[in-house]
Every structure is written in C-alpha cells, then in structure tokens.
Amino acid sequence: MRLIEIIRKKNYYTISIVGLAKNAGKTVTLNYLIEEAKSTGLSIGITSTGRDGENLDVVTLTQKPLIFIAEGMYAATAKNALMFSDAKLEILETTGVYTPMGEVIIVRARQGGNIQIAGPVSSSDMKYVTRRLKHYGAQVVFIDGAIDRKAVSSPLITDACIIATGAVLSRDMRKVLEITAYSVECYTLKQADKNIQQVLQKQPKTCIIKNNGEVVVPDIETSITGGKKINELIDERTAYVFIKGAVTTSLLKNIGENKFLRGIKIIIEDGTKIFADIKLWNELRRKGLTVEALNAVDVIAVTLNPVSPQGYFFDSNLFKSETKKYLPGIKVIDVLSGGDFDG
After folding, report:
1. Is residue 246 part of a domain?
2. Does any domain span residue 343?
3. Which of 108, 138, 189, 251 could cross-link to 133 by cystine, CB 3.0-4.6 Å?
4. Tens-place pLDDT, residues 88-122
5. What is the DSSP string of 132-182?
6. Domain identity same for 75 and 180
7. pLDDT at 57 over 80
C-alpha cells in the first residue's frame, strides 16, 4: 500500500515531515508525497518551519533537492522566497505572519515549477497558516520540518508525522538505527490514562501527584532548572510526576537519582518535548523509568535515505530490513526506491 493511500484512508489533514538531521531525506519525502498527491488527484498545501527548496544548503554548502509544486497545489511561503521560485503562482492572501524572509504569502500554482518555501516558525503561526491553506482548498497540508524545530509535530499542531532518517546521521548503520529508534520511541510513547489526563487538565503546571490524589506543585521557575527540587519531593507516596515543557538531560538525570524511580510514572505533554541524551534515556529506561504522554503523536511512517552527501552510502535493502527490526510495527519506506512498503 502506498503512503498517500494511508493518509487518505485515515483522513489526516495536517502532516509534519521531520528530518533527524540535515540531508536525512525530508525534502525527498515531501517531493514523493507531492508526486503521489498529484497522481491521485489529492489537493494539497505545503509549507515549512524553515527554508527549503534552495538548491544549495546555506549552512552545509551541499546540494539539496528542489521542491516541485504541481498546478493547482497550494503553498505558504515568505515573500522573499517567491523571488527564487519559477512556478507561476497566484497570490491568494497576505497572512500578516512574518519570518526573516518576509511576510508569509498564501499562493496557488497556476503552472507547475520549482518553489522555495519558508514558512512560520512559531507553533501558533503555523496553526493559523495551515488553517488558511485548508480554507482555500487544500485537503491535506504537509509541513517540511526539522529535528531542531520538532514542536511542529506536536499533536496540538498536526494530526500525524513522518520521520525521515538516513545515512547522514553516521557512517555506522547501527548508530543510525539506534538514533532513529530513540526518536520513534519518544514520539510514540503510550498515552496516559484518562483519569490522570483529567487531573492535569485542572493543573497545567509541573506537579507531583501522590497515590492518595494529593497534588504538590514545586516552587520552581521552570522544569528545566527545577530538577533537583522535583527530585526532593518524590517519595514512596508519589504516583505521578507531570513535567510541563521540555524534558532535558539534566532534568532526567536529577529524577533518575531518586530511589523511588521504578514506582512512579513520568507524564509529559507529548514526545516532541524530549531533549534528552540518548545514552541517559536508555540507561534510565533499563532502571525502570516509565514515561507516558498526555497527547499521543501518530507516526505514520519512517522514510529512509541510504545516501549521505559526504560520499558514503548504505545498502538500501539491508538498511530497510535492519530498520524494520529496530522499529517493529512502524511502516518503513525507502522513497528513493519507489515508496512501497509491506503491510
């Protein structure tokens, strides 16, 4: 079954594509989805959390795939990015949302061609822009994202996400697989029970919930700097610890020192809030760290790019088969080889 068929079947409206590194293949994935949408008659809109579609990465100075927008498709991109696009575009709206490259403009392709997209950076602006794209006729909106701006994959912003990984992460395939598995694990955390969700709807701050229902709010400015204080308040009566905001390495290290770790559940907003070191994360998971999310992130698939711009590459079939072993239950797609997957 094709990826676009899954998207249509589940009635997703907004989908983010998150690359685990530059040149991991997210733009290739976006182009694949654009082509699939065109062939099936699906009307789509596209935008980005950064700048995409330029032929040379301004940071790494490596060649990048261009983005081709087909006739009838929609895009939200910054005013200055339009100067580098050769598609014939009709301006539908100036949004009042500004980026370093100018105001974000809603356009419709009158004639297909290459386009650069530079969309909103903030979550609230992205939600507004995707709503405007849908207003003009986009049945599905694809957001070209990035791992350092992964908040766009939050279920509060998008319905689902696609994770793009590839050889660029490391010359060692096993390391690539471990990083990918960690990212997918964070994104697909089990959703917290309804009863704890109801409790936390009334208490939106970082807090500790005792097994008798008592809620203790630590006197901290943020969870990032309050790890030691949170740790001090965790005792044998603690059932849950809710972390509002980012879950960092230092925060987890502090909580991980608590002798009651195995008996509690850490509740976070969603998997996009985790910014912890992979080694520490795996170590604490082995020690009994249990983490659940208030909001589940729906990972539709993981796409693979076996080629690195540094000149090395993985065997495509081996990379795909090994990724499936590391990610049981997740759809794995090599878009360079056609985009089909099993199941």
Report:
1. yes
2. no
3. 138
4. 999 999 999 999 899 999 999 999 999 999 889 88
5. HHHHHT-SEEEEE--GGGGGGGSTTT-SEEEEEEEGGG-SSHHHHHHHHHH
6. yes
7. no
